[in-house]
Specification:
With about 80 residues, the chain is of the alpha+beta class. It has a domain at about 30-80. About 35% of the residues lie in helices and about 10% in strands. The chain is built from 2 helices and 3 strands; from the N terminus they run E-E-H-E-H. The protein has helices at about 40-45, 60-80; strands spanning about 30, 35-40, 55. It has a 3-stranded antiparallel sheet with strand order 1-2-3. A hairpin with a 4-residue loop joins strand 1 and strand 2. The radius of gyration is 19 Å and the shape is flat.
Amino acid sequence: MKIRTKYITAPKKHLFTNILFCKDCGTGMWYRSNREGYICGSYARQGKKACSNHLIREKLLKETILTDIQKLVKQIDKQQY
């Protein structure tokens, strides 16, 4: 008889892991694939009694940051010429 083994994989790191923090409680934001974004870590662990979810969609976050970087690059280019 074969013994079944359970394989545990390491959690996938997401782009903003250890970078985003909740504005209300200061806890790190956790990525949730079913929400396609980040939620408050306190909310993820303890629910509404700890904090609200503060959902930030990853796609919107990436677009916003890219737009800001592009603006900064244009500003730097203008200052150099």
